[in-house]
Design a protein that fits this description.
single chain, mainly alpha, 5 helices, about 75% helix, about 0% strand, elongated
Length: about 150
């Protein structure tokens, strides 16, 4: 896998999560209006992550960095196996999003360990944000089961 391909796959994953959260916003509008703001916030977070990665692509930020040496040995393919989700219920959506947030967390954590300095910090911060998203989703899920 080449660096550009890796970054495009990350952008795709962030887009998929963004789309899930926008769909969650729609479900919530009809089923759980109190959750609308939660899904709006989650969507905005994924949009911000996507914009960060797109900025890396546009500026060539990751070219000539440590990742070039490791990219083929990172075993990143499992993080990109998620197919397009088509949840039929809000519960299905939340469960799908939890899986994807876990994959994003693991990916960003792995990238934060490869890089140093500010790039490491950016990916570490993004990994921590994915954990916050998963925690919020867990709370939403538990509320749906009541």
């Amino acid at each position: 896998m080449k660096l550009e391909e890796l970054l495009q796959k990350i952008v795709h994953q962030e887009n998929e999560l963004y789309n899930l959260y926008k769909l969650g916003e729609t479900f919530a509008t009809y089923e759980y209006p109190s959750l609308i703001e939660h899904f709006q916030w989650l969507a905005s977070e994924e949009l911000r992550h996507r914009n960060t990665i797109e900025k890396f692509i546009g500026e060539g930020t990751l070219e000539n960095t440590a990742i070039i040496d490791y990219i083929d040995s990172l075993s990143l393919e499992p993080y990109f196996q998620d197919e397009r989700a088509e949840p039929q219920t809000l519960t299905d959506l939340v469960l799908e999003a939890l899986i994807r947030e876990k994959h994003s967390y693991e990916l960003y954590k792995k990238l934060s360990q490869i890089f140093s300095g500010s790039l490491s910090e950016i990916f570490r911060m993004m990994a921590q944000e994915e954990l916050k998203h998963a925690y919020r989703l867990k709370i939403i899920y538990e509320g749906l089961e009541e």
